[in-house]
Amino acid sequence: MQRILVLNPKGGSGKTTIATNLASCFASQGDHPLLSDEDPQGSSMRWLKKRKPEQAFIHGIAAYERNGRMTRMSSSIRPRRFPRSRCPR
Question: Do the domain assignments include residue 10?
Answer without folding.
Answer: no
